[in-house]
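Researcher: Let's try something more involved. This one mixes different molecule types, so please make sure each is placed in the same coordinate frame as the others.
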Amino acid sequence: MGFDDLHSAVGLALGLGISSPLNLQHKSKNPSPSQKLDDDQFCDPLNLSLSGETYLQIHEAVKKVGTDNKIKVVCSDRQLSCGRLYRQDSAASSFSNVSVKREREFGSSEEGETERVSSRISDEDDDGSNGRKKLRLTKVQSALLEESFKIHSTLNPKQKQDLARDLKLRPRQVEVWFQNRRARTKLKQTEVDCEFLKKCCETLTDENRRLQKELQELKALKSAAQPLYMQLPAATLTMCPSCESIGAASSHASETAARSSFAVASKPHFFNHFNSPSAAC
DNA sequence: ACGAAGGATTCACTTACGTCA
DNA sequence: TCTGACGTAAGTGAATCCTTC
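Model: All components are placed in one shared frame. Result:
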């Protein structure tokens, strides 16, 4: 069974899980170990999931197929000067411009194996060009990485090493994949949040417009009813303590009355002691 | 106990390659 | 075949945390 065959038999479920659009997690830039635990529990909004069985199938297939890949090892002058053999893969040019970080990476104990084998090592660069080649992860590798990411959005060194070994990738490649994956997740979440806030903004704008209109109407009603209002003796007015609306003692219960000339938004607090609040409402 | 130095890790930003319409 | 858009692997520098001295 090859990678593609396996993959065709694999059901991938893609889900955009939004627990709370505004539930942004504010984490310190470098989380402490305890924070990393929280990270691991962080619900990834961009979810690719595999069943446990499928996960194991992939895992086994990766172990099985990985060693059958065509392997090519090249040595540049610089690489030789470092006393190591580097696998020629997608990041060929980056090896010719090795950073201190990369040197650290290659200095790890398990590099020997992971440098010799690759997920998809082709006979590219036979022309000896130093142009940066880009690795394309296989679907199975991506699926397994996704599955791991679902469990841990960040990896500790051991997890990284194990995953790299299983996928026949360098730890650095696994690390980069997780970095980029986290970035994509964050971007996706930002887009979701943005959409949510847009909708909130629209809703509030509509609400504001509606309230402004209502206010205008009430002001108009108030100014129109002012003379009549002023003519009424205070004893004939009631105010409900609970709703604080003013009405004539005889008829005020309905909402129509509340919006009538006897109801005002301000609080003159006229209250007819002869009428109980309950009777007024 | 405190602070400086250096390593390790992560993130944000960017570049460059591969793919596809 | 060419080209531009897009996705993504990888490079880089800065920030932060941790360990050691």
